[in-house]
Amino acid sequence: MWGALLFAGGFLVIAWRGMRIHFRAPDDFGRFVALGVTTMVVVQAFMNISVVLGLLPPKGIPLPLVSYGGSSLLSTLMLLGILQSVGDHSG
Length: 91
Fold this sequence. Notes:
This protein has 91 residues and is mainly α. The chain has helices at residues 2-24, 28-52, 70-88. It has 3 helices and no strands. The longest helix has 25 residues, at 28-52.
């Protein structure tokens, strides 16, 4: 149970940091990119978690950064890299 809570807490940290980058972005494009990337990763994670808990019907959505599959991992890492880049340029 503690591992699952720690794991879900990791996605909450991604959400918190992404929203922090969103509010500190210097321009509108950076704000929209940060909001979109954060929303994509966090919603995908919580949809997968809710399917595992039986709250939603199966959708076939992989868990970001964990589920097996090279394309999902690669796209998630690229999204987080873009988010980091926006955060680096926010000053």
